[in-house]
Design goal:
The protein has 322 residues and is an alpha/beta fold. It is 31% helix and 16% strand. A hairpin with a 2-residue loop joins β1 and β2.
């Protein structure tokens, strides 16, 4: 019996063959040593047509790394990076629909979605940033490259509540990824003897002190962080994003409108069995009300009855939701 990832892969392959969603794009690119029919030869056709040109330009202008680079963009049809763009990039200039989406997802009443500082397009404000890193090395990661080699936030918004307090809204986007349970605190460097744990030690040296100071990570019952849930994928990624958000609001950076609070959103399709495991992340948080996990269709439900987004809704429904 096919698992969720295989089912989605077969669905996307059939869409390439039998629908207009990919505009008759050709697949069959070498990926991890083999020719793959789930990787497009021209990655631009992996993007929703109406955002294709602008999204590729955005990545180029901001020097963002594609998860896998074919021609122009990532051609892997199961890419979460691409799925995030296809869902959210068309909405990046519409603060009112974004406010409705965020309020519905979080159960809060934000009054305003604020523009992203330093991100504009021909004078127009952007209200979502993608593959976000902070200007400072808040997590001792050294690299400032967006999308690779450090903690990047898939998408980020900034909202102001009724008390005029500013929040950052980091969004983690998943599509078919499984819950791997890999222990990132026990990991060898390539070429080193088994059990030397060079990578694991480096990670703990980087993050342990920040975990210890965290108010959102419920860590006080742990004598050691090695082997703990915070270093277990997929929690490891959420841990780093939580630390990132805490450091950003601690510094009240003008880069993010001097935000003082954050709310973490995790997008995972209901059909992905990893969602049940990842939902347990709440158990490792001090304030569980500052995190939510939601299906992408439910997340974007507010666009359903908006005429200007009919075409987008139909595309997402056919490609991802049905």
């Amino acid at each position: 019996m096919a698992n969720y990832k295989e089912t989605q892969c077969n669905k996307q392959i059939n869409l390439i063959k039998d629908s207009d969603l990919f505009e008759k794009a050709e697949s069959g690119v070498e990926f991890r040593g083999e020719s793959r029919n789930f990787v497009l030869q021209d990655g631009s056709y992996n993007l929703y047509k109406d955002i294709r040109k602008d999204a590729i330009k955005y990545y180029k202008d901001n020097k963002i790394k594609w998860w896998c680079l074919n021609k122009n963009a990532c051609g892997h049809i199961l890419s979460s990076q691409v799925a995030c763009l296809n869902h959210l990039f068309p909405l990046r200039k519409d603060p009112e629909i974004l406010k409705t989406i965020i309020n519905t997802a979080t159960g809060r009443e934000f009054e305003e979605i604020l523009p992203i500082p330093m991100e504009r397009d021909n004078g127009e404000e952007h209200y979502i940033a993608f593959e976000v890193v902070s200007s400072d090395d808040n997590l001792h990661e050294k690299s400032r490259s967006r999308g690779a080699n450090n903690t990047s936030i898939d998408a980020l918004m900034i909202a102001k509540d009724k008390n005029q307090e500013v929040w950052i809204i980091p969004i983690e986007w998943k599509y078919t990824e499984p819950f791997s349970k890999k222990d990132m605190s026990n990991d060898d460097r390539k070429g080193e003897p088994q059990g030397s744990n060079g990578r694991g030690e480096k990670r703990m040296n980087r993050y342990d002190s920040l975990i210890r100071k965290s108010t959102q990570l419920n860590h006080k019952q742990l004598e050691s962080y090695q082997g703990s849930p915070y270093y277990q994928e997929s929690f490891y990624q959420l841990m780093r994003q939580t630390l990132w958000a805490e450091q950003v609001i601690k510094k009240e950076s003008a880069q993010w409108h001097n935000a003082k609070k954050f709310f973490h959103i995790n997008i995972i399709p209901d059909g992905n069995p990893s969602k049940e495991e990842i939902s347990k992340w709440k158990d490792y948080l001090t304030n569980q009300d500052l995190y939510t996990i939601i299906d992408p269709k439910k997340f974007l439900e507010p666009i359903k009855d908006k005429d200007k987004y009919n075409k987008l809704y139909d595309y997402l429904k056919k490609r991802y939701w049905e």
